[in-house]
């Protein structure tokens, strides 16, 4: 057992399949207690049973939510914050690509699941993370971010999904472009989160897992699913794909690093668009508005005192460090 995860509480989304499933099982084998968010009861119970079998020493837990729906993101964040006085690591990993535009509760599904859910869950659990510091937030991004640009006039991808013949020929349709944007949002969100968390002892980093043969793309539809299915023959295994995620969640080597992007357990440089800090700030404000979180302050005054008796540090995430 790797002692550095013994007794730690790891909240993780997307742990019923692929990269997240392998990472959850590895972190549990290192001694962590896994609290996962799943959408499907059958798959969730199977994942929980595997964790209990492989790492029976901890009381692993599960909460259910469709993370593409804003009301469920908020409900599950509040549920976990109420149930877990201590959170050492939050892994935002659930994600998908959709070949056609779908909207639920006013949000386009790729943007909602791949970006807004990261934002809302993090926002809801930050008081617990800050009170448990040193703590970590790990966001699964993708190198698909590198071909993307953000369009603040079209965050919900109404125009992007109209697509073009060129996109259909190159990527099997507009879904890949919309997915790439959401993964660009992951890098920008990570950078801005790290900036706002400066001095709290909570770090935020993101990663590209590599191209991995998981269930990713199986339900995207049409040409995209067909193309991904073919390409998966040359992809990494989920075991290989989980390595960087496990590294960021657990390794002492990255304890002091924050706001960075990793690939193959090493620092990597994200695209110029992903290093645009003005865009990162604007995305934060726009996401808070769309998620209707503008007026809610993520204040650790709601958080319990740390077991050692330290008073919870007060942090207002809506005002960045220079304004505090
Ligand atoms: N595979 C790759 O090549 C690759 C490359 C770069 C980045 N990524 C990223 O890696 C992450 C994990 O993907 P993966 O490759 O492991 O794919 P996967 O096998 O399809 O796993 C996706 C996970 O997300 C969960 N999920 C999907 N929609 C959800 C929803 N609406 N609410 C709650 N949970 C939901 C799935 O739950 P179910 O089990 O119920 O479906 C599953 O646990 C994603 O963020 C993806 O963008 C993957």
Overall description:
The chain has 324 residues and is an alpha/beta fold. It has one domain (3-296): Rossmann fold (3-Layer(aba) Sandwich), CATH 3.40.50. The protein is built from 10 helices and 10 strands. The strands form 2 sheets. An 8-stranded mixed sheet has the order 3-2-1-4-7-8-9-10, with helices on both faces. A hairpin with a 2-residue loop joins strand 5 (103-104) and strand 6. Helix 1 runs parallel beside helix 2 (41-54), helix 3 (70-83) packs parallel to helix 4 and helix 6 (175-196) crosses helix 10. It is globular. The chain starts with 8 loop residues before the first strand and ends in a 34-residue tail after the last helix. Residues 295-315 have low confidence and may be disordered. Residues 13-14, 16-20, 39-40, 43, 66-68, 93-96, 113, 140, 142, 208-209, 211-212, 214-216 line the site of NADP nicotinamide-adenine-dinucleotide phosphate.
Characteristic terms for this protein:
324 residues; alpha/beta; Rossmann fold; 8-stranded mixed β-sheet; two-stranded antiparallel sheet; globular
Summarize the entry for a quick read.
This protein is α/β, with parallel strands linked by helices and 324 residues long.
